Amino acid sequence: MPAYTLGGKRLYILMFEIGVLVAAVMRYRRDPLTGLLGLIGLSWFAIALGILTPFFRWAFSVVLVFSLLVAGRLLSAEWCATVRRAVWALTMVYAVNNVAGDVYVLGRDAENSPYGAVAQALDDKIPDSARVLTQLEFWFAFQRNPVVYTPLWSDGVSQLLADNKVDVVVLSRALAGDVSPTTGQKERLYGHEYGRIYATASSYARRYGKSVEPVATRGYGEVEIWTLSGRR
Question: What is the Cα–Cα distance from 49 to 144, expressed in whole angstroms?
Answer without folding.
Answer: 38
